[in-house]
Design goal:
heterodimer, A: 484 residues, mainly alpha, two-stranded antiparallel sheet, 1% strand, globular, B: 453 residues, alpha/beta, Rossmann fold, Alpha-Beta Plaits, six-stranded parallel β-sheet
């Protein structure tokens, strides 16, 4: 295990985090919130100091590292990111308990959007900004950002690939261009452009600048922190529709956008994962609209709310325009299924991912066929290309780990004694990085009622969900830390 | 004419035998001295030992005076390099390369432009096309097309219960109800050009000339049931199998392919998304049964072993598979096959040789040379297509007045795009094409060779 290299990476991550706290300080100063500004500044200073020391101590490390270290590095980085990111809330006293603050910021970085705050409007602007910004940074990944900005001359060799693999969601992660740094840059440039377009559309609808930026951060990272108590419900229908469209856009694999830039429109339209994603979105909206007859005044309004909620849950954003906890069971059931499915691989969304579902289904179909023809040799194809057996194996392992974690977490937080629906939806909402669940953790409620232990479990769930389980799981494995 | 053959494998040897018998000067190159020794003993040729892609060896083989180079080593890349090198040493040289890697097939036309190749041949691809044509008309053992695909010579087996059995050829028209001509009969391993009094017996294999559009009538009137092939079982997963499966799959036919080697199965599964690939031993009767040998429309055996192919095909015939096709690597012992009900046989190597021989003949006599050459009746007879020009003798005279060489038959005349199965009063004119069938001892280079001197 190359501890020095990992230390160096984490140090750099802390420096990046400290730099990103500074805009929040400026915003606090602008709104004359001295307590928040001081808390943010102290946090930035502490973070920068510790990061700086770590980088200084580990200077001159040359050895690269391997898949295992890449995973550990990503897992630890995200934990450290949360630990320091929680400081502003804690120091300013906005969230008196440290675990609550940790829950809030991890929920931010993992783009979950689950909150322990009963109401957010009394929060200082600087902290609201920091909370929303964590979505944006967490959406595409902090380490990917580090790869994009780090000097890419590099002795970096191939090992940065392990980091991209560990941090980016999806069963098959590949580079877009030969150079890692360039790949990371392209991803972030696309991300920034889409976010800016979102902000412009929101501004056109008459949303104030601060609200627009924060909402766009929430949308882009598919996070879901609102800066109003009623999430997005208070804004006009145009703004809500803008959010619907952009949530769906950010749930698409970013490779598709890159291919559109390269004018490979055909291959994008034929992308099987994209088709599945859009098909499920469309089908769910139709079913929910049919199921919701009579709940809203007009059909138009029903479609509007159904589309928004489907987009919000499927892309694992978690905004809400209406309290879907009051919907009929079938509609809630569909939303629960969408929570499990999640967005496309390679997007900022969470969940099991459409791409994985596709692989699992195709693998299943093959297994059934092999019962009919025992000797049959068949490869699984996606988009006409053969999928490596190893990827299929990993996907099945992922499914097993996914189910196991859901069951275990469900059991652990059941100790608190809430209803089964509450517990299950809370675990699913956190693990899939959605945010709101049903009943006590529904769109109008929050996670404040859980015990400290449950919150810690959910924090780990959120991290495991965002990093796709293995980088977190590996931290608990004995072989990781052993000598051999 | 001087011909260099690079590669003394099965195709090389087959070509050597055929071309040296026809009087060409052959030089053969191979890296293996022992193979060369035995070839040199059998035929009157020169042998050069060495790497055929090196200038030194090519020089020793006399490339500067040669007219044609045939590169038929086992490696495509060496064949290409050999042709390229030789052509750089003699730019009048015609080159033929065997290219059979499926990965190159899509770019073969481009390659023919870039590399100085006169002809590329892909035996397996050719055989796959041949098998596909057989599958389209399941009644025939073999089909050869002439006159741009409008005339064919088809092979039929006369069984005990066949309508043709025990009939003389003079009765033929009344039995089949359409105008066709039997140009050769293969009985007990020897080919005969029959006359009107010849009586067909059970076990005969007959070669029938007919315009393509009357084939269906022929089959119907002979009460040979032709059903559309929908399900095909392929045994063996070699190159030939790959080409065939691909073509059949594109034609909407359900294909099952059995191959023993797991890695090859994976490769095939990769290349052929629509085909059911099954890993297993094709000689295992239970496997064949479970994979639906009893309800498939055709069985094609294409493993690397002739013996295995024959055994599987026998099984298929016994289990009443409607059509059975067997691939054979060697045709030497084809006389045994007459006794065996193993359906049609296809030999990629022979097809490949035919193509090359046709090219060589065309090269030898650019004027009046055969438009196409097909060996039929297991190589014991040959069907050639010629164009009638100014130099052709006896233009406009009725056929019954011509004195043709022994064992030579004019089986079809195409006049202004219309095919005629000729009778005694038929005649040909300038511009017509004529198909001639001859036994193999009389070599015919141009149309005038068919007349008695």
């Amino acid at each position: 295990m190359n501890y020095k290299m990992i230390g160096k990476f984490i140090g750099k991550i802390l420096l990046v985090e400290a730099v990103f706290m500074l805009p929040a300080v400026a915003i606090s100063l602008y709104y004359r919130e001295m307590v928040a500004a001081r808390a943010l500044f102290i946090s930035a200073l502490v973070t920068a100091l510790i990061g700086g020391v770590m980088v200084a101590v580990t200077r001159g490390t040359k050895r690269g590292f391997h898949a295992k270290e890449g995973m550990v590095c990503v897992g630890l980085s995200w934990i450290v990111l949360g630990l320091f990111g929680a400081l502003p809330f804690f120091i300013s006293g906005a969230i008196p308990h440290y675990v609550d603050a940790l829950f809030e910021i991890v929920s931010g970085f993992t783009t979950t959007g689950a909150s322990i705050l009963p109401e957010v409007e009394s929060m200082p602007y600087g902290l609201l900004y920091w909370r929303s910004f964590s979505h944006w940074l967490g959406g595409m990944g902090v380490l990917v950002f580090l790869l994009a900005v780090s000097s890419g001359n590099e002795r970096s060799k191939g090992f940065t690939m392990h980091i991209l693999r560990a941090e980016s969601p999806g069963p098959q992660v590949g580079k877009l261009v030969p150079r890692m740094k360039q790949t990371a840059e392209i991803l972030y440039v696309l991300y920034i452009i889409l976010t800016v377009i979102d902000v412009i559309f929101l501004l056109c609808g008459g949303m104030p600048l601060f609200d627009s930026v924060c909402t766009a951060f929430g949308t882009a990272g598919t996070g879901g922190f609102g800066i109003k108590n009623d999430s997005i419900a208070g804004y006009n229908p145009y703004l809500q529709n803008v959010c619907t469209v952009f949530m769906l856009l950010f749930g698409v694999n970013f490779t598709c956008y890159y291919m559109l830039l390269l004018k490979q429109v055909k291959s994008v339209l034929k992308d099987e994962e994209l088709r599945l994603y859009l098909g499920v979105v469309f089908g769910s909206i139709v079913l929910i609209v049919l199921n919701l007859r009579g709940y809203y005044a007009t059909v138009g309004e029903t479609i509007h709310h159904a589309a928004f909620q489907v987009a919000s849950v499927m892309t694992t954003t978690g905004f809400a325009t209406t309290d879907f906890d009051l919907w009929p069971s079938f509609s809630k059931g569909i939303l629960l299924c969408l929570m499990l499915l999640g967005a496309c691989a390679g997007s900022t969304g969470g969940g099991f991912k459409c791409g994985r579902a596709l692989l699992v289904l195709k693998g299943l179909r093959r297994s059934v066929r092999q019962i009919v023809h025992p000797g049959k040799v068949e490869v699984v194809r996606v988009n006409g290309r053969t999928v490596d057996e190893k990827v299929l194996q990993n996907t099945n392992a992922y499914l097993a780990a996914y189910a196991l974690i859901v069951v275990a977490s469900f059991l652990l937080i059941s100790i608190d004694g809430f209803s089964i629906t509450t517990n299950l939806s809370a675990v699913l909402a956190c693990f899939n990085n959605i945010g709101p669940g049903l009943e006590l953790v529904g769109p109008t409620c929050n996670f404040g009622g859980f015990s400290v232990f449950s919150k810690l479990v959910l924090i780990l769930d959120m991290l495991a969900g965002r990093l796709e389980i293995f980088p977190i799981l590996i931290l608990f494995s004995k072989t990781t830390w052993g000598k051999r | 004419m001087k011909i260099i053959i690079a590669g003394d494998g099965k195709v090389g040897a087959m070509l050597t035998r055929q071309l040296s018998a026809e009087g060409y000067d052959i030089t053969i190159i191979d890296a293996n001295p022992r193979v060369l020794e035995s070839t040199e003993e059998l035929y009157d040729i020169m042998a050069v030992q060495g790497n055929c892609a090196t200038m030194d060896v090519l020089e020793r083989a006399g490339v500067s005076e040669a007219d044609l180079l045939i590169a038929a080593t086992s490696a495509d890349e060496i064949n290409l390099l050999c042709c390229l090198t030789a052509h750089s040493m003699n730019d009048r040289l015609h080159t033929i390369a065997r290219i059979r890697n499926p990965e190159y097939t899509d770019q073969i036309i481009k390659m023919r432009e870039v590399f100085p190749l006169s002809l590329t041949i892909n035996p397996e691809k050719q055989a796959a096309l041949e098998i596909e044509r057989l599958l389209k008309y399941p009644g025939f053992l073999k089909r050869d097309t002439f006159a741009k695909g409008r005339v064919e010579i088809v092979e039929l087996r006369v069984d005990k219960d066949s309508l043709l059995c025990n009939h003389t050829l003079a009765d033929l028209d009344s039995v089949v109800g359409c105008k066709v001509l039997i140009c050769a009969v293969l009985r007990n391993g020897s080919a005969v050009a029959p006359d009107g009094n010849y009586t067909l017996l059970a076990g005969d294999r007959i070669f029938v000339t007919a315009p393509t559009d009357t084939l269906e009538t022929l089959l119907k009137n002979l009460k040979i049931i032709t059903h559309k092939v929908r399900r095909v079982l392929l045994c063996g997963g070699g190159r030939l199998s790959y080409y065939l499966a691909k073509q059949l799959d594109q034609g909407g036919i359900a294909v099952r392919l059995i191959e023993q080697d797991y890695d090859r199965c994976l490769q095939l599964a990769n290349l052929l998304p629509g085909v059911t690939i099954i890993q297993g031993d094709a000689s295992d009767e239970r496997l064949l049964e479970s994979e639906g040998m009893d309800d498939c429309d055709a069985l094609v055996t294409m493993t690397g072993l002739d013996e295995l192919n024959m055994v599987i095909s026998l099984q298929g015939t016994i289990r009443k598979v409607p059509q059975v096709i067997t691939k054979l690597g060697r045709m030497d012992n084809s006389y045994i096959l007459d006794q065996l009900p193993i359906g049609s046989t296809v030999s990629p190597k022979q097809l490949c040789c035919n193509t090359i021989v046709r090219y060589v003949r065309a090269l030898r006599n650019q004027e009046g040379a055969a438009l196409s050459v097909h060996t039929i009746a297991d190589g014991k007879a040959e069907a050639l297509e010629f164009c009638v020009d100014d130099d052709t003798r006896y233009i406009g005279e009725p056929l019954k007045q011509l004195h043709l060489k022994k064992n030579v038959l004019i089986v079809c005349i195409t006049h202004k795009g219309k095919q005629e199965i000729p009778g005694g009063d038929s005649f040909y004119e300038k511009g017509d094409t004529v198909i001639v069938v001859t036994s193999r001892d009389a070599v015919i280079y141009q149309l005038n060779d068919i007349f008695e001197a």
